[in-house]
Amino acid sequence: MLYKNWIKARTRCPFCGRGNQILKARRSAYLTYALAPYAPYHLLVIPTRHVVSFLKLTKSEEKDIGELLKLGASLLTKLNVKDFSVLVRDGGNRAKSVPHLHYHIIPKHRIGDLDKDGRDRSVLTKRQIDNLMRRLKKLAPR
Question: Which pLDDT value is given to residue 112?
């Protein structure tokens, strides 16, 4: 089944109660494998509590997630994976992903040369950088 069809067919959160698909668990998060992997040995770290944004995590959840991300990376190195990407899927866009915070550990995944619209990525100009930094600094805590 294609992932886009699988995601549309969900009536409940597939990350709440993964049962026997858990590789390792901590009190507030667990390590598992991806059902629709980008690459072999694609792993996921998922908070046990149904939460959409990492901004809503407790300190305990952050600690457990960090430990499991390191454990997942360690497993990949034991499988002779030389490089990997960690991707955080945050937000509730149900059409694109499961609306439950999760972290991907993707072996040998090249994030890519394409931007969010599928076009070749460009390097920012000095003017774009200046504008971006000005906006971000206004929002950053002092």
Answer: 65
